Amino acid sequence: xxxxxFGVASSTSAAPQAGTRAPRPVKPVFPSAAxxxxxxxxxxxxxxxxxxxxxxxxxxxxxxxxDTMKFLExxxxxxxxxxxxxxxxxLLEALQAKGDSLEPGQxxxxxxxxxxxxxxxxxxxxxxxxxxxxxxxxxxxxxLGGTPPASSTSTEAPKTE
Length: 161
Description:
This protein is α+β, with helices and mostly antiparallel strands. Helix content is 23%, strand content 6%. The chain has helices at residues 79-100, 130-144, and strands at residues 45-46, 49-51, 57-59, 64-65. The strands form two sheets. It has a two-stranded antiparallel ribbon. Strand 2 (49-51) and strand 3 form a beta hairpin. The chain is elongated. The termini are far apart. The model is unreliable at 10-14 and 152-156 (pLDDT under 50).
């Protein structure tokens, strides 16, 4: 059985053929997840769960380490996006400050947080209907003031001067 390492790009990628795009570089599946030995030891954890019938807290198997979480980099040209990212950083800063105020072993219920469960949608692919694609390309080319390219199924050799 092979071991898959999603953090390392494959070394067996084929060279792109003429007229095709180069393949995209392989990105790690979890780019922010460092190997366990390299991670900082977290002391403040956000745990999601419910009170059990005997009063014991029943939490999900994995908590969220708050004190080792990094702030988002604020950059871009969209002020609304930058403001949103800054608000996310402020939430993290507030959680870290609240955690720092606790004694070791102490826990509190945070009533101001809202939990949301979300299922992502399926990826949407571009239309594969050739007539729709061809007419859309022709319309876009016409809007640019050019002429549509020759069909990609043409067997005629390109003219050279």
